[in-house]
Design a protein that fits this description.
2 domains; 0% strand; 535 residues; mainly alpha; 77% helix
């Protein structure tokens, strides 16, 4: 792909995304459709998807960005259902699709059929986050879908690697394959954790937002490439590093670095996601050229059978995985009662496949038996799930009664509770500062007015701040540092911001607020601090 073509693609992504938002259509769907149409226009450059570009250049930063923004506490609390989907369901789908493909295409070797199963087994991380976050889904459902999308590629790509080796070599040792799977997963997690720890220690010593965010851009590749070099899971390494650094970000990064990083990763995600979906649509003409030797009926039967197997297997797995563990364990049943059927139904339907599957298919060796057929079937599964499941997902959410219309109002209330509390803590700190007679009274009054206005605003949002008496206006002993000779509003406000941040982190550590409230409150304080630095 030439530089000029890349620029045209970026312009296309921006234009189509803008049109999609005006039409209130998720941009991924319109980008895929435009790519499909453009691929058949005479004179359109033939752009064959380079699997190395997707698996090395696109996938690591997109997974890393998703991991950074994942609510770690919610992710940890839902690790059991996430694991059942990202490991159990992927392996079961790999096996089921392999058997179905072998039945409908008898000349396809079993190992090649299993490779096809591994290719189409994982719902796509990019599609899941790009679509699910646009909907007002219940928080737990969104957490499970995002967590599954972060981890399932690791399972699928390891299974894919094993199946391809068996198909090309003609032999397979399933005991050895299981050992390889465990080693790859453990190795990837270890590399990611080690890198995350090392980078956290390094960034703690840096105080340059540009340098820190340049390092952040390199982090996903620094996690992916070494893990792959030792035949571990690069995907799992990236996810673990992202989760670790995202968890440490509230205390690790300065306000400048956080705000700059949020803008940077938003732009990177927008461009890479758009390019990914446009490239999917552009692949069909090239795929069709490789199918000259197969009948139309055979192709349609294979595509329909595998797509049906992918969708039905997810339903058959999700419901037992949701309710069977609770039926078997009274402790789990008591701690986490079974959800209503609507939640598992929505999770079952939200199984869109995407570019990782297509890249894995293109990465198959040229001498792989049935390579062209696998490419075609993979493309059909991606298009069918993206357009069938993805486009109908908002309707399904509404029909199931899961469109969380009060989510925005609840978030505003949670933010108001947090702001009300930390502003009162700052007022308490201000009263202590006021005891220092060297601080002009007019400065004290100006800051007091600002904080009291925040308290009144939060009080109005909450309609009386129910439960506010459980909070105490005090500053903990370890926060009672000697106040330096503060002679300006800027210096004093910085001191109060430090007190507010400390209290905010305490609330988060005690689970009084969630990750989203912490992130948005920190952003509010960061913006105020940037304003202070500019004065």
């Amino acid at each position: 792909m030439s530089f000029e073509v890349a620029l045209i693609l970026i312009a296309l992504v921006a234009a189509v995304s803008g049109v999609a938002r005006r039409l209130h259509v998720p941009p991924p769907f319109l980008l895929v459709l435009v790519g499909l149409a453009a691929g058949f226009i005479p004179g359109t450059p033939q752009i064959q998807l380079d699997p190395q570009i997707v698996l090395v250049l696109f996938l690591p930063p997109l997974l890393y960005a998703a991991a950074l923004s994942t609510a770690f506490a919610d992710f940890r609390d839902n690790l059991r259902p996430i694991g059942l989907l990202s490991v159990g369901l992927v392996l079961v789908t790999t096996a089921v699709v392999g058997l179905v493909a072998r039945l409908v295409v008898p000349d396809l070797p079993l190992a090649a059929a299993i490779a096809l199963g591994a290719i189409v087994a994982p719902p796509d991380a990019i599609a899941a986050t790009a679509i699910a976050r646009k909907l007002a889904l219940p928080r737990r459902v969104l957490t499970i879908l995002e967590g599954e999308s972060l981890l399932n590629d690791a399972t699928a790509l390891v299974a894919y690697r094993i199946a391809v080796t068996a198909a090309v070599a003609g032999t397979a040792s399933w005991g050895e394959a299981l050992g390889d799977f465990v080693v790859a997963a453990a190795g990837g997690a270890a590399v990611g954790l080690l890198l995350g720890w090392a980078l956290a220690a390094l960034r703690r010593r840096l105080d340059d937002p540009l340098l820190e965010n340049a390092l952040s851009l390199l982090t996903p590749f620094a996690a992916y490439l070494p893990a792959e070099a030792i035949h571990a899971s690069g995907v799992l390494s990236v996810v673990v590093a992202g989760l670790y650094l995202g968890r440490r970000a509230p205390v690790l990064l300065s306000s400048n670095t956080r705000l700059q990083g949020q803008a940077l990763w938003s732009m990177v995600t927008f461009l890479l996601e758009g390019l990914v979906f446009a490239l999917i649509g552009l692949q069909l003409p090239g795929i069709l050229r490789g199918l000259a030797g197969r009948s139309v009926v055979e192709l349609i039967v294979a595509a329909v059978a595998v797509t049906a197997a992918v969708i039905i297997t997810r339903f058959l797995w999700v419901f037992p995985a949701t309710y069977l563990p609770r039926w078997l364990s009274r402790r789990l049943r008591t701690k986490d009662p079974g959800p209503s059927w609507q939640g598992p139904m929505l999770i079952s339907w939200a199984g869109m496949r995407g570019v990782v599957s297509l890249a894995a298919a293109f990465a198959l060796p040229e001498n792989m038996p049935g390579r062209d057929l696998i490419l075609f079937v993979t493309f059909c599964v991606i298009i069918a799930t993206l357009l069938l499941q993805g486009l109908t997902l908002p309707w399904v959410v509404h029909r199931l009664g899961l469109d969380d219309a009060g989510a925005a109002e609840r978030t505003d209330r949670e933010l108001a509770v947090a702001d009300h509390h930390i502003a009162r803590v700052a007022l308490s700190e201000l009263e202590r500062i006021a005891e220092d007679r060297s601080v002009p009274q007019r400065i004290i009054e100006e800051l007091r007015g600002h904080l009291e206005e925040r308290v009144r605003h939060a009080h109005a949002v909450l309609g009386g701040c129910p439960g506010e008496d459980e909070y105490h206006d005090y500053v903990r002993g370890d926060d009672q540092e000697a106040i330096s000779d503060a002679v300006s509003t800027t210096h004093l406000r910085q001191r109060l911001l430090d007190a507010e941040r400390s209290e905010l982190l305490r609330l988060y550590g005690e689970r009084d607020i969630d990750d989203e409230t912490l992130r948005r409150m920190q952003q509010q304080l960061d913006v105020e601090e940037i304003g202070l630095e500019a004065t």
